[in-house]
């Protein structure tokens, strides 16, 4: 694993990379509040077969936030992503994404589908704000408060902020958890700020995923869906049905997994990548 910084639009951008340049490239887009190390276990397992590039998206990890909150809207954001990839000399790639990153990944296909060899969405891209009935102001208040909260110890940070109750843990995921930490006056804070989360939430409400999914061109899209909590099964089914109808994405429900599906069951995503993206293989859904 190597970590380095490039400059895009006069802004530093932090990158985490595994593998070597001669291998096929996977570009990873993390979810809201996460960092590039979100994909660490998947990357460690596949670094001998792929070059994996994960970007700390603006306002996350070691990449500063956009100065203009309107830049978090879909087109300016995905144009920024495309510029980053040009700087990195990434011409064609596979796209792996989680949660909010999956919304960006789908929108990227609208203008740059010719650059994407395949798309895997990890429990994201289907959470329509309109379909889920979420109020923008209520959601903004929640995220502003949640992201500005803090705890007093590292163990408490792991228990409260990083891991879900009873979730599997590993040394690599502890490293990913440390990447989420910001220390301030002896307190353990979430690294991303409330104003960043608020800007992203407003952008997601402004351009609901259902509004642009019909514009996503035909593509090889695989969606892996969490099944916990079970009380969301009905709305989850309805939302994923909509995504399938609009994009023809293949939908895979993964039993006993929460929203951090790639942490709960990294083996499922690792096997999916090997199955769909190994050179020369075009197989039926697993």
Short description:
This protein is an alpha/beta fold and 286 residues long.
Q: Would you kindly provide a written description of the structure presented here, covering whatever features stand out?
A:
The structure is a single chain. The chain has 286 residues and is of the alpha/beta class. The protein has helices at residues 40-46, 74-87, 100-112, 129-132, 136-147, 154-162, 171-178, 194-206, 209-212, 233-247, 261-264, 266-277; strands at residues 2-8, 11-18, 25-29, 51-55, 93-98, 116-122, 150-151, 181-184, 187-190, 221-226, 250-254. It is built from 12 helices and 11 strands. Strands 1-2-4-3-5-6-10-11 form an 8-stranded mixed β-sheet, with helices on both faces. Strands 7-9-8 form a 3-stranded antiparallel β-sheet, with helices on one face. Helix 3 links the parallel strand 5 and strand 6 (116-122). The longest helix is centred in the C-terminal third of the chain and has 15 residues, at 233-247. The radius of gyration is 18 Å and the shape is globular.
Features:
hydrolase, eight-stranded mixed sheet, 12 helices, alpha/beta, globular, 286 residues, 21% strand, three-stranded antiparallel sheet, hydrolase activity
β content, as a range? 15-25%
Order of helices and strands: EEEHEHEHEHHEHHEEHHEHEHH
* Fraction of residues in helix: 40-55%
How would the global form be characterised? Answer: globular
Largest sheet: 8 strands, mixed
Structural class: alpha/beta
Keywords: Hydrolase
Organism: Exiguobacterium indicum
Protein name: Alpha/beta fold hydrolase
Domain AB hydrolase-1: 24-180
């Amino acid at each position: 694993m190597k970590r380095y910084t490039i400059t895009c639009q006069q802004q530093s951008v932090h990158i985490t990379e595994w593998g070597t340049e001669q291998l096929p490239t996977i570009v990873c887009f993390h979810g809201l509040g996460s960092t590039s190390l979100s994909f660490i276990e998947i990357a460690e397992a596949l670094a001998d077969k792929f070059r994996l590039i994960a970007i700390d998206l603006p306002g996350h990890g070691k990449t500063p936030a956009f100065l203009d909150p309107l830049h978090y809207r879909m087109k300016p954001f995905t144009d920024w992503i495309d510029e980053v990839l040009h700087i990195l000399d990434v011409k064609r790639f596979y796209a792996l994404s989680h949660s909010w990153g999956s919304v960006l990944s789908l929108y990227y296909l609208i203008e740059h589908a010719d650059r994407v060899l395949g798309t895997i969405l990890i429990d994201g891209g289907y959470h329509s704000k309109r379909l889920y009935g979420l109020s923008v102001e209520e959601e903004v208040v929640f995220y502003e408060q949640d992201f500005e909260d803090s705890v007093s110890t590292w163990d408490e940070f792991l228990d409260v902020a990083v891991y879900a109750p009873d979730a599997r843990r590993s040394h690599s995921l502890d490293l990913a958890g440390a990447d989420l930490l910001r220390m301030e006056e002896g307190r353990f804070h979430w690294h991303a700020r409330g104003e960043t989360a608020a800007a992203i939430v407003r952008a997601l409400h402004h351009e609901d995923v259902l509004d642009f999914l019909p514009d996503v061109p035909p593509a090889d899209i695989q969606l892996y869906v969490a099944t916990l909590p079970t009380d969301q099964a009905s709305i989850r089914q309805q939302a994923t049905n909509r995504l399938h109808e609009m994009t023809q994405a293949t939908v895979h429900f993964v039993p006993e997994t929460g929203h951090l599906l790639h942490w709960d069951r990294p083996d499922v995503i690792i096997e999916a990548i090997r199955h769909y993206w190994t050179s020369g293989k075009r197989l039926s859904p697993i």
